[in-house]
Automatic annotation (TrEMBL):
Places the protein is found: Cell membrane; Membrane
UniProt-listed Pfam families: Peptidase_S26 (PF10502)
Protein name according to UniProt: Signal peptidase I
Topological type in the membrane: Single-pass type II membrane protein
Keywords: Hydrolase, Membrane, Protease, Transmembrane, Transmembrane helix
Substrates-to-products reaction catalysed: Cleavage of hydrophobic, N-terminal signal or leader sequences from secreted and periplasmic proteins
């Protein structure tokens, strides 16, 4: 192999590596990222220490929907919670029953045991451009009921899509 061919081959490899790094940075910063679940507030849907992939792009073109598991960015910590209330809705919890705009809402994503730990709350109206979130483990979750308050749309940085670690737990997070 001639020196010129060797030099061209090295340049091609460097270009390929540089392109791969740029694509990885774009994907990481604008499309998908990972987060580690810290605590049991989303148990049994998500467990402490699991690593999830979240979709950052989905909320650039759309808005959070009820039931989405979202990543909320706060200055010192990110939170993983489920969207329950949408902008402008009225939320009330009475005798372990969730009401949205006065209508009972069946929470099919959590156990009856978790529902029984949901204390009375509200009624309260969600401001425009804000969301009401709750953890699936109602007994211990810090959420819109007791510390996080309403979540501004700009603080929701993505929707959880997939559990990737531990490997034995690979699954969609819906």
């Amino acid at each position: 192999m001639t020196k010129q061919k060797q030099k061209n081959e090295w340049l091609e490899w460097l270009k390929a590596i540089l392109i791969a790094i740029i694509i990885a940075l774009i994907v990481r910063n604008f499309i998908f990222a990972t987060s580690i679940v810290d605590g049991d507030s989303m148990f049994p849907t998500l467990k402490d220490g699991e690593r999830v992939v979240f979709n950052k792009f989905v909320y650039m073109i759309g808005e959070p929907k009820r039931g989405d598991i979202v990543i909320i960015q706060r200055p010192h910590k990110n939170y993983v919670k489920r969207v329950i209330g949408l902008p402008g809705e009225t939320i009330e919890i009475q005798d372990h029953v969730l009401y949205i705009n006065g209508d009972e809402y069946k929470q099919t994503f959590i156990s009856n045991e978790a529902i029984n730990y949901t204390g009375n709350f509200g009624p309260i109206q969600i401001p425009t451009d804000s969301y009401f979130v709750i953890g699936d483990n109602r007994a211990i979750s810090k959420d819109s009921r007791n510390g996080l308050g309403f979540i501004d749309e700009e603080d929701i940085i993505g929707r959880s899509e997939l559990i990737i670690y531990p490997f034995s737990e690979w699954s969609l997070t819906r």
